[in-house]
């Protein structure tokens, strides 16, 4: 198993992406600590993991609350002895489908502030504990909006927010590398599987139509799946990726070419 005897904290562990990654980490032998604002969704993921023979704990944590993040990571280390992997899948509260020339400043800044703040707080708290042991992996999350510019597609501040997250990840990699800590960002494309239960009233078109458009602009003619993301995250968190840090892992199915 890739993550045998590892302790992993997944922020936003009750969501589609966070839950998929948590299940993959547990499948690969990690003990997972699911953190988020809604215990009910966290508990559902934890129950899935336990039913499959894995180990999972849950905690209500607001990733925008510095003291709450610090308190939780301290409790994880006290209970498990270490934190080996930190993965942030927190929603960045983005507002889209409005041209920038019409978008209120608050809506534009929302994902920028939320995304950079949660990634800074969670990565920083985990890295402090990892540094004491001289090892660890910090995984962050961005999106294809960093480099995919499509006429008529209005993404608001998402691209700016994700650009900042990617830069923050590289800075962490530079500062933490000498202490044995790796930092890698996973860049995603939209994942249709994660749209289940999401209101589509304000979407630019029916989900099937949007998915078809995504496939059309992908070099592979396909969309990114939750399995793609969770498998990549498990690999990057493992010792098999021991030489990988300070980079962005492209999971956009060719929508973006590096």
Description:
The protein has 258 residues and is of the alpha/beta class. The chain has one domain (7-251): Rossmann fold (3-Layer(aba) Sandwich). 43% of the residues lie in helices and 16% in strands. The chain contains 7 helices and 7 strands; from the N terminus they run βαβαβαβαβαβααβ. A 7-stranded parallel beta sheet has the order 3-2-1-4-5-6-7, with helices on both faces. The protein is globular, with a radius of gyration of 18 Å. The two termini are 30 Å apart. The relative contact order is 0.14.
Quick take:
The chain is α/β, with parallel strands linked by helices and 258 residues long.
Mean pLDDT: 92
**What is the CATH third-level topology name?**
Rossmann fold
What does the main sheet amount to?
7 strands, parallel
Shape: globular
Strand percentage? 15-25%
Second CATH tier, the architecture: 3-Layer(aba) Sandwich
Number of helices: 7
H/E order of the elements? EHEHEHEHEHEHHE
Query: How many domains make up the coordinates?
Result: 1
Helical residue percent band: 40-55%
Distance between the termini: 30 Å
Q: Which helices and strands, and how do they pair?
A:
Elements: E1 7-11, H1 16-27, E2 31-36, H2 39-51, E3 55-60, H3 66-80, E4 85-88, H4 105-133, E5 136-143, H5 158-176, E6 181-188, H6 207-216, H7 226-237, E7 247-251
Parallel strand pairs: 1-2, 1-4, 2-3, 4-5, 5-6, 6-7
Helix pairs in contact: 1-2, 1-7, 3-4, 4-5
Looking at this protein, list some descriptive labels:
16% strand; Rossmann fold; 7 helices; 258 residues; alpha/beta
